[in-house]
Request: fold
Amino acid sequence: MSDPAPNPESSRQDPSRRRFLKGGVAVGAALVAGAGRPLAGWAQPVPDDPSKVLGGPLRPYGERSPFEQQVRVIQAKPAERGGSFTPLDETLGIITPSALHFAVQRGGRPDIDPAQHRLLISGMVNRPVILTVEEIKRLPSLSRILFLECAGNSRLGRPPTVKSVHGTHGLTACSEWTGVPLSLLLREAGIQQGATWIVAEGADATGNERSLPIAKAMDDVLVAYGQNGEALRPENGYPLRLIVPGWEGNVNVKWLRRLTVEDRPYMTRMESTAHASLMPDGKARQFNFVMEAKSVITFPSGGQQLPGPGFYEIRGLAWSGRGLVRRVEVSTDGGKTWQDAGLQEPVLPLAHTRFRLEWPWGGREVVLQSRCTDETGYVQPTLAELVKVRGRNFVYANNAIQSWKVAADGSVHNVQA
Reply:
């Protein structure tokens, strides 16, 4: 395996990059001239000097410009059960705005008064405790930039009408989470000998429960109360939630109210029938915790339209539940050949990583793909490779390579098998 591609941020004076920029301008000018539209036609009327117009007052809580219209796409289900998808093709950098972070709920969104909320830690502990939110906030805290991904992201069996990247991959997002290490709370409670699992329970109407091995709980799990510099949003678990780095979304229990220390998993509905996938030998995968290496091209992607042949920058996101993204490769011929993409700083473990590749499109039909390699050496598979291992009955944790077809007219389509 070759070395990872150099970081393009460290080579701003790279002659090839200058050549790309100059070439892009030249091609753009040629295209415009060929269409009979002079460059001056791109100019927009100059508005009145805004410095001479009195603006609006300051707001107590900032709002985005009315000209920015990015929104989450709401799944068409009853209000108490459903989800919303992050518009990955419209976000910038690696931090997802809290208001655009995907959300999945099964019992509606509870509105919880933090002054009345309590976290109970009980079971196989020496000192059962009940903590208020304020008491938790007084404890030593830390912040980490981490991705979350629902196990149903890219779920197999979705209708072929799903065309866009937010529909295929929008159940992932990346935030800076602030909270208290779960290990600190468990040490204060005193874990008894023989305890190997904890069961986390949410305060929503369904009381979502998930079992979590003690080893992971004592490693890097957070009891979070902050997201991107402010309190959690209600859809994302206000006032407390678990953040379990690199593991599937619903283990990151929202509206956290109870932690029970046990010597075995509870085998809740999310660990039995709801999230099990049959394997070729008839057995079922019940505990599929780690989200494996995955990537997706966000531009060009399904539903978008390229204006015509010329130079473009292919862009996308990659992540791995096992640590750092070491390499992302891009194919413009349906996987026959691959090129190393540049990784945009910062590249952080267990976080989204931006990648990009300069691409001169000649106007012919092509199929674009990306594949990620993480620090363990694991390479993102094709769907055929996944089916060979898991059979045809698996639904969740699909991290297969995604294919986008760019047609000769510049339209982009989802052609995933």
User: Anything to note?
Assistant: The domain at 73-266 is CATH 3.90.420.10 (Sulfite Oxidase; Chain A, domain 2). Helices lie at 15-34, 133-137, 165-169, 182-189, 214-217, 383-390.
